[in-house]
Amino acid sequence: MKTLKSMVAGIALLLACITANASVKSHATQPTEKDVVNIYINAIANGKTDNLDKVLGDDLQFNMQRGQRVNTFTKDQLMNYLKSNTVSGESVNTTTTVLSDDDSSSKVKIDFKYDGYTRTDVVTLDKSFGWKITSVNSTFK
C-alpha cells in the first residue's frame, strides 16, 4: 500500500511538471506587443509580410483615409494588397509613439516618413490569446 501511494504521488508530480512545462513553452512562442508592432512596420515599410497574417486579428478593420475618402479593408484584402504591391526600395524613417497601454490592449501611433509625405497609422492591439492587431487607421499628409 505504501508503494502504491508513492507511485500515485510520483505520477501526479510528473503530470504537474509536464503541464507546467507545456504552458511555459506555449507562452514563450507568442510574440510580444513590441514584436507585433515591429512585424507590422516591417511589412508596411519593407514589404516583408512573412509573419504579418499571424499577428493580424481575424476581424481586423483597416481604414485608409486619403482626403475626404476612406477605404476600409479586411484582413484578407490587406494581405492580398501588400503581397501584390511590393515596396520599391523607397527610403522611409519610422517613429513610434505609444498612445495608451495596459495589460490587455494598446494603441500605438506609427509615422512612416517618405520623401514628400508622411503616412500616420494608429494601430490598436488587443491581447486575448496573444497580441493581435485589431484595427488600423491610416492617414496621409
TrEMBL record:
* Keywords assigned: Signal
Query: Taxonomic lineage per UniProt?
Result: Bacteria, Pseudomonadati, Bacteroidota, Sphingobacteriia, Sphingobacteriales
Q: Could you say which residues form the signal peptide?
A: 1-22
Which protein is depicted? Answer: Lumazine-binding
InterPro entries registered for this protein in UniProt: FrzH/put_lumazine-bd (IPR039437)
